[in-house]
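FAQ: What does the model actually see?

It sees only this:
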Amino acid sequence: MTDKATRRRGRVLLRPLTLIAAVAVALSACGAPAAAPPGQSGSAAAGGGGGGGKVVIGVGGQTLLTYLPTTLAQQLGYYKDEGVDVELQDLQGGSKALTAMVGGSTNVTSGYYEHTIQMQAKNQQIKAFVDMGQSSGLALLVAPKNEGQIKTIADLKGKNVGVTAPGSSTDMFVKFLLAKNNMQQSDAAVSAIGAGSSAVAAVEQGQVDAAVMLEPDVSVLTKRIGHNPVVLEDVRTSEGLKEVFSTDSWPSACLYAKTDWLNQNKETATKLAKAIKRTLEYIDGHSGAEIAAKMPESFAGGDKELYAKVIDDLKKTLSKDGTFTEDGVQAVLKTQQVANPDVGSKEIKLAETYTNDLVK
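And it is asked to produce this:
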């Protein structure tokens, strides 16, 4: 194994296996449920969001910790405090959540910022208005059946890589890494494995050769296979983020909406942004245990103390104030230019893909 590969695996080993196993037991106790299909967890079609109407927010995998602030804001009552009636719909990955919003079944998406760039390249105006994550929190793992065979990105040639959904940030991550390693996007196939129990099962059972996963799925998988999985790339840490993207900031989880909707519902969007900003401040000022106590019981899997430790890790990757940075959005654009042919060399006006005005 090369020095670089050793460092990559070492990043996982820095987290005690006993802790990961314990957290995995807690999370798997509730089956680490997969995200619900579009519309199944929500009871109403999206309204206009103005004049006190309900605002439906589609979440790109609500059990994934990267979207914790969206749920926590509801648990803390911050949406209601700001005067907004919010319904959260749990969807199967970022691209599914984006599709639901474009189709009109939701008003706002809790998804990754990069989708605003993708949509502008398709002449559809989507704008992010509050940032939650400073890192995508992704890890590219090798399925147990291929440990010892897949040691580098180059070894993915001819292999099948699991992603939450085609077109989602997990998919873009694979494409970016292939390009960065002078490979063609067609060199590796991608398969949708969702999030939660479906993703863990797909990797554990060898339905895919490797997979891009997020927490808590990584911890659940670790417990199921009995050892730390081999990690090819990992941007859950600042070290990994800098190694992969050459930046300290890579805006990820955020709230975004159609630009027309934002223009027509500025007051409502401002209230949502304030609720998320207050939530980020709450997270920054409270322990993992205090935060875990506010989250739905099922998310903790019966052991809030262990769930709290996972949240403490998550806190390192979150925004403190909800604002986007110029360096960060430029880094995401660079990723899209490399990984996404739909973006490629097209002129992208970044100023039209995000705003900090509503969160100030």
